[in-house]
Structures are given as structure tokens and as C-alpha cells.
UniProtKB/TrEMBL annotation:
Protein name per its UniProtKB record: Uncharacterized protein
Region (Disordered): 171-190, 213-249, 337-366
Alphabetical UniProt keywords: DNA-binding, Nucleus, Repeat, Transcription, Transcription regulation
Organism: Trapa incisa
Biological process terms in GO annotation: regulation of primary metabolic process; response to other organism
Highest taxon in the source lineage: Eukaryota
Biased composition (Gly residues): 180-189, 343-359
Keyword Phosphoprotein: no
Pfam families: Myb_DNA-binding
GO cellular component labels: nucleus
InterPro entries, sorted: Homeodomain-like_sf (IPR009057), Myb_dom (IPR017930), Myb_TF_plants (IPR015495), SANT/Myb (IPR001005)
Location relative to the cell: Nucleus
Domain Myb-like: 9-61, 62-112
Length: 390
DNA sequence: AATACTTGCAACCGCGCCACA
DNA sequence: CTGTGGCGCGGTTGCAAGTAT
């Protein structure tokens, strides 16, 4: 269609922002909010396009931006999230409050990417570069591809769940506000939300944002299919259980509370990672989640465009993969390929250095594989005091 | 001291998605 | 259903500051 770029207008300024311009933009937004970015420059008296203003605001002027050096924790978070999400900087930035996607992207490109490369880790795949040597036989390639699918799968699912939880929080928040006027909404404490209620909100959202087709519900969170309402109820109950697993104590941080309680499968994810020899076990992935995986029987529809993007059209093959082997076997079978070490491999210290063929007993690969996934999943499940993520 | 090269980061560009008419 | 405008995202560029020669 060829829409002309917003900055094509002659007379609009480009390039670095002056302090005066910053001041104008700040003052305007503080007073009026940004509203329509397109209309903002004229109203604020700026000779800039709206896009430029938005960029300046989101990347630089926003008051909640943390500037300066990235902490070790932040670095680790970025690396691990990048392993999961790839170059989806905004998604990564969502997990690093106060950091902008642009900043993270820059930091990745200028620091982390190089560092990983130096360590012999491919910054794209997060696997040791020598792994490519391993993948000569078709079997290995196939398994590697499967694992890649799994990562994409998890990535997409995680994101969708993040979004759901966030939205549910918003909903809960507005509900709290409205109900506080009307005399207390049933069962929601003033100091925070019970996990069940939070997830209930999430469930409402789920119901709202998903299509109910016949006897099953297609969920944007990807993995879940309900055969009937009772299972939805089950889900809510499960959430309660999940919070019990945390000792049933009041959690300081509301966001953590919401997160952990609203993502039972992630909790189980952790359980299976932490307490079993293998990163995933069939029990960890299947039975603990009270909803049945429907991949075998249900045509799986992705409604979320971002999932579509991140899945990159691999859904069907993934479906087949899971159908054929299941999550556990996938990881077991592909352990030979997935030996990336995110941390502790400084100076090429990983045991797959210089080609896996020499150091590559299947046991080692298994171990590496476990480490790899553990390191990623640890992030997802790390405590809020340790991680900026949750 | 002058020049070349490297690094880090702010800003721009183009594309795709989404809401709406 | 389709076209359009607004917005957000990821990739890329350009420039200033720092470092090496």
C-alpha cells in the first residue's frame, strides 16, 4: 500500500534531541499524557514526527527508566531470556522493569553477544559452536530441530502466560478499585489478591480471550485444553495447591504472588526440574497440570499473532513431535545436541569444547542438556529477591 | 599531537499487527 | 470484508567518545 513514512514531511526535525525539545516533550506529557503520538508534536510545539517523540519518550525521557550499567543479574536475565525468546527485545524488556528494549538490544549487541561468542557459544542458538560438528547425522539434526521447536513452544507459551497474568492483574486491579467503592469484592483481601482469585481473574480472561469451540477450549496459552467447565474449576483449585506449595505464606511481592500462583505449570516446571534427574519428566509436564494436553487429538489453533510469529510456523511439526515422542523423550533424544552452557563456561570451560565428539558421551550431553534447561528455567522460577523477573 | 580505528548508544527506518470505519 | 491510520517492534545507521598507533 506504500504508506509514506511519518517523517517524510518537510520541515520536521531529525537527529539528536536538544534539551529544549526534551523539556517541551516532558512538560507536555506530564500535563496531558501522550495521547495520540501523531498529534502530539503539534500540540507540544515540536518540529518532530510523532514517532520520534514516542521513541524519545520511551527510550529516554520516561521517568521510570533506569540508566547505567547492567548488573550481573540483569545480564544473566537477558542472556537467559534471549535463549528463550530470541531477539524479541520488547518481550525481554518486559521482564526487566526500568530497562528499555532499545537499551537491552544495544547492550546485547555490544556486550553480551560478543562475550558469548568469545566463550564459544553461538549467540543466536545459545549452543556451543562446536555443536554444529555434531549434527552431521540426520538423527541429530532432527532431534535438534525438535528441541528448537520445544524452545519456541515454551517461549510462546511463556509469553502468552505472561501476558495473561499481566492482563489479569490489570483486571484484578480495576476490579479491586471498583469493588472497593462498592464494599469489597468477595474474598479479595485488601492487601492483595489470593492466588485463587487472581487466577480466577486470569481464568475469566482466558475464557474471554479464548474461543470455545464445541467441547473444548482453545487457549492462547497454547498447551491447555479444557474438556468441560469442571476442568476449569480444577484449574482454579490447582492454583490453590500451588500456593500451598510455597508454604501457604503471604508473599511480600504482589507480582510474584500473581506470577507463581497464576502459572501453576511453571511451578511444576520448576518442580520437575528441581527434584528430578531430568529437566522434564512426563509426570512433571503432564500429570501435574490438571488440564489435558490436547495436541494428540485437538486441532490446535493459535489466535495470538505474537505466538504465531514466535512459533514461526512450526506448530504442526511440533505437534507431530510431541505426538510421537512426548516432551521427555524429546529432551532425552536430543540431549546430544543441546549442550549449551550459559554460565560457568567462561573461557570455553564447557565439556563440549573443541567438538563434542571427543568429550561427548551421551551421559555428558544429558548432563549438559540438563544444565542448559535448568539455567533457563531457573530464571523463570527464581525468587523475586534473586531475580528481577518475578 | 594527529590520525585511524573501535566502541557504545541514541535515533531512525521499514515492516507488521491491530483497531476501526 | 477491505482499506486506512496508529502504534510497536526489530534491525540498522550515524555520530560522539574512547583507545590504539
Amino acid at each position: 500500500m506504500g504508506r509514506s513514512p511519518c517523517c517524510d514531511k518537510v520541515g520536521l526535525k531529525k537527529g539528536p534531541w536538544t534539551p529544549e525539545e526534551d523539556q517541551k516533550l516532558l512538560a507536555y506529557i506530564e500535563e496531558h499524557g501522550h495521547g495520540s503520538w501523531r498529534a502530539l508534536p503539534a500540540k507540544a510545539g515540536l518540529q518532530r514526527c510523532g514517532k520520534s517523540c514516542r521513541l524519545r519518550w520511551t527510550n529516554y525521557l520516561r521517568p521510570d527508566i533506569k540508566r547505567g550499567k547492567f548488573s550481573l543479574q540483569e545480564e544473566q536475565t537477558i542472556i537467559q531470556l534471549h535463549a528463550l525468546l530470541g531477539n524479541r527485545w520488547s518481550a525481554i524488556a518486559n521482564h526487566l522493569p526500568k530497562r528499555t528494549d532499545n537499551e537491552i538490544k544495544n547492550y546485547w549487541n555490544t556486550h553480551l553477544k560478543k562475550r558469548l561468542a568469545k566463550m564459544g557459544i553461538d549467540p543466536v542458538t545459545h549452543k556451543p559452536k562446536s555443536d554444529t560438528l555434531l549434527s552431521r547425522d540426520g538423527q541429530s539434526n532432527k532431534s535438534a530441530a525438535k528441541l528448537s521447536h520445544m524452545a519456541q513452544w515454551e517461549s510462546a507459551r511463556l509469553e502468552a502466560e505472561v501476558r495473561l497474568v499481566r492482563e489479569s492483574k490489570l483486571r484484578s486491579h480495576s476490579f479491586k478499585q471498583s469493588s472497593s467503592g462498592g464494599g469489597g469484592g468477595g474474598g479479595i483481601s485488601s492487601s492483595g489478591f489470593s492466588s485463587a482469585s487472581t487466577f480466577a481473574a486470569s481464568g475469566q480472561l482466558l475464557a474471554k480471550t479464548t474461543r470455545i469451540g464445541g467441547d473444548h477450549l482453545e487457549s492462547p496459552t497454547s498447551t491447555l485444553t479444557f474438556s468441560d467447565n469442571s476442568k476449569q474449576q480444577q484449574m482454579t483449585e490447582f492454583v490453590g495447591t500451588s500456593s500451598d506449595q510455597q508454604g501457604g505464606t503471604i508473599i511480600k511481592d504482589e507480582s510474584e504472588h500473581d506470577w507463581k500462583s497464576s502459572m501453576p505449570n511453571l511451578g511444576e516446571f520448576k518442580e520437575s526440574v528441581g527434584s528430578h534427574t531430568l529437566p522434564f519428566t512426563s509426570t512433571g509436564f503432564h500429570h501435574d497440570i490438571p488440564m489435558s494436553m490436547s495436541l494428540e487429538t485437538t486441532p490446535w489453533t493459535i489466535h495470538d499473532s505474537r505466538i504465531k510469529t514466535s512459533m514461526g510456523g512450526h506448530c504442526s511439526s511440533l505437534e507431530n513431535d510431541i505426538e510421537a515422542e512426548g516432551f521427555t523423550e524429546l529432551l532425552l533424544n536430543s540431549s546430544g545436541e543441546q549442550s549449551g552452557l550459559l554460565e560457568g563456561s567462561g573461557g570455553g570451560g564447557g565439556n563440549s569444547e573443541n567438538g563434542g565428539e571427543s568429550g561427548g558421551s551421551s551421559r555428558d550431553y544429558l548432563e549438559d542438556n540438563k544444565n542448559y534447561w535448568n539455567s533457563i528455567l531457573n530464571l523463570v522460577n527464581s525468587s523475586p529477591s534473586d531475580s528481577p523477573l518475578f
